[in-house]
Amino acid sequence: MKKAWSCPSRLTLLLALAAPLLAQAHGYIDAPKSRAFMCKTQENTACGAVQYEP
C-alpha cells in the first residue's frame, strides 16, 4: 500500500492551485467609474499615462 499524502504535500498542492486565482484582478472597473474608464469614454481629459491602459 502507498502512504497517504502528508499534510505539507496537500497544503502545497492547494496553494499551487489557488495562486492563479488570486492574479485575475488586472484591468480597470467601469462601475463606479475608474479614471481609466473615464479616459476611455472621454469624460476625463487629464489622463496622463492611464490613456494607454486597455
Which stretches are poorly predicted, pLDDT < 50 over at least 5 residues? none
Order of helices and strands: HH
Number of helices: 2
Mean pLDDT: 72
Determine the structural class based on helices, strands and strand pairing.
Answer: mainly alpha
Number of strands: 0
- How much β-strand is present in the residues? under 5%
Share in helix: 40-55%
Shape designation: rod-shaped
Query: Radius of gyration over alpha carbons?
Result: 21 Å
In short:
The protein has helices at about 5-20, 35-40.
Describe this structure in words.
Helix content is 41%, strand content 0%. With 54 residues, the chain is mainly alpha-helical. It starts with 6 loop residues before the first helix and ends in a 14-residue tail after the last helix. The protein has a domain at 26-54. It has helices spanning 7-22, 35-40. It has 2 helices and no strands. The radius of gyration is 21 Å and the shape is rod-shaped. Residues 1-25 form the signal peptide. This is Chitin binding domain protein. Keywords: Signal.
Primary descriptors:
single chain, 54 residues, signal, 0% strand, 41% helix, mainly alpha, rod-shaped, Chitin binding domain protein
Walk me through the topology.
Elements lengths: L6 H16 L12 H6 L14
Keywords: Signal
Protein name: Chitin binding domain protein
